[in-house]
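RETRY 2/3 - previous attempt timed out on the joint model. Re-submitting the same 577-residue input unchanged.
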Amino acid sequence: MELKAGSRWRSAVCDTEVVVVRAPSGSASLECGGQPMIAHDAERPDGATLDDAFAGGTQMGKRFADPESGIEVLATKGGAGSLSLDGQLLALKDAKPLPSSD
Amino acid sequence: MNISMLLEMVADTIGGQVAVGTLTYAQLFERATAGSKLVGDRLIAIDINSEAVPIGLFSAALAGVPYVPVNYRLSDEQLRAVVERAAPGTAVVDPDVVARLENIDGLQVFDRPSFLDTVAAGADRSDAPSDPDAIAVLLFTSGTTGTPKAAVLRHRHLTSYVLGSVDFLGSSPDDAALVSVPPYHIAGLAAVLSSVYSGRRIVYLPQFTPEAWVEVARREAITHAMVVPTMLGRILDHLEASGEGLPALRHLSYGGGRMPVSVIERALTLLPGAGFVNAYGLTETSSTIAILTPDDHREAIASDDPKVRARLGSVGQPLPTVELEIRDGEIWVRGEQVSGEYLGIGTSVRDDGWFPTNDGGRVDEGGYLFVDGRLDDVIVRGGENLSPGEIEDVLVQHPAVTEAAVLGMPDDEWGEVPIAFVVAHDAVTELELQSWVRDRLRSSRVPVRITFLDELPYSETGKLLRRVLRTKSES
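RETRY 2/3 succeeded.
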C-alpha cells in the first residue's frame, strides 16, 4: 500500500478512518484491528475480523506515530480496532494543550 | 491532508452545533461542498467578515483551489492590479465591490448574498483532494515597497499548525469566539481553522468599533477573542468610560504588532476574569509561532524580579512544534507550519528547514522571546544597532505619553540618528522627554528630534505605518 501524505484509509473490520499526515520512509502495511486498512473509497472485504490483540480502540481526533518509519496518521473517525504498522502498535502522539492564540 | 477534513471531522461529530452565525457545522460543510462546485481556478474573496468567509475558505479547499482574500479597502487601481494577478477565478465580494471589478478577464463575480443563496441548496459529498502540497491560501501583503506580494500557504502548513496547537473538539459547548480581524489577515483565517477544529462557535464583527465589539461580546456571551494592539487600547477606553464589564470573557489573545506594557497592565486590571495570551507569528509561518500564556502574564505582573516582570513585554516561548534560534540578532524558525514562500518568487526557507523572519529579537535566560521589530526598521547609528522598540518602550513609560514611534533619520555624521513621534495626553516638552530617555538608556538612543502628533498612523490591523512617518519626517 502506498501511504502517501494526504491519503485516506479505512478499517476493514471497524469504523476507524485515518488520513496520513506524514508518509513513512519506506513501504509498510498500515493496519487496524490487526487487518490491513483499505482505501477510503474501497469496498470492505468479506470475512475479515477484528484481532483481539489489536482491539484497544482508536479515538477520533487523535494522532498516532511511529518514530522509526516516520509515519504519522490522524484518526478522522474512531472505531474498535487499534492502529498498527507491520504488526507494531502505533503510539498515541501526545500533544500538550495550548491556550488559544486565535 | 486538506484543511476541509478538519471541518468534515467536526461536522461528522457535532454537526448540529452552531459553527458560525446561525449555521451549524453540518450546514457549513454542506454549503462549502456546494461552493466547491461553483468555484473556478481560485476563489477570490473581497469582503467584510461574514459566514461567507469560512464557507469560501472550505469551498476552495474542497475544490482543490487557492482561497485568495483581498483587502476591499485597497484603492481601485491597487484592487484591480491584485485581482488581475489572482485571476482567472471566481470572486465572492461585498455588493459595493461588484462595480469595481468590471471587465477583468477570466473573472466570474458573485456578490455575497447571491453566493450565500446559491450554496444554501447544499450538494452531495465527495472526497476532498488529497494533495497536501496544494495551495490552500494566497495572502497578498503590501509590504513597504508597495508592490503586492502573495504569500503561499499550502494545506500541509495550515493543517500542521492546527493539529499541533489545537485539541480536536477541545472547546465546551458554550464557548464562543469573537473574530474582528479581517479575513485577508492570517489571524482571521487561523481563527476560522482553530475555532472550527476545537468546536468553538464563531461570532463575526463585520467592522471594528470599540462600542460594537463590547456590545457583541456582552450580548453573545463571548468567551474568547483575539485583538490587535490598537483595538485593545480602544476597547479598554470604552470599558473605562462606560463602566461595563465582560463577565463571560475568559480568554483574550493579542498580537499583530507591538503592545505597550501599560495597555496590558490596564487590561489585567479591567478584565480580571480573563486569561491573556500574547501571540507572535507571521503570515509566512501560518500564524502563531510563540505565545506568552495566561500563567506567564500572572507570574510577570506579580513578580518583584525586574527580569520576570519584563516578560510582560515578551512574546513568550516558541510552540512545542516550532524550533527557534537567534542568529546575528535575527529570529530564525523551523517547523512544519513554516512556509516562507511567495508566489513567483520562491521560498526563503533554507535546505535545512530554517526560515529567517526578518524580525530582530533576543531570548532571555528563561527562554522568553523579545521581538525588536523588523530588521529594516533597526537604526544604525555610527555602527551601533538601535532597536526602535527599546526607545519607544521608554518613551511610553513617561506619565504624559500615550504612544510613541521611533525611526532613523539620515545623518551626515552618524549615518542615521533616532527621531521620535509622540502622542501625549499631558503637557510635556521635547527636552523633558529627551532627558527622560537619557536617564534610562545610553545617550546614543536619545531621539535628536521629537515631534508631537494627535495620533500615530496605524494600518487597520494594528501595524504602525512607519513609512508614513518617514515621509512626514522628510517633508
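Strands of chain A lie at 8-10, 17-22, 30-32, 35-36, 38-39, 63-65, 72-77, 83-85, 88-89, 91-92. Closing ticket.
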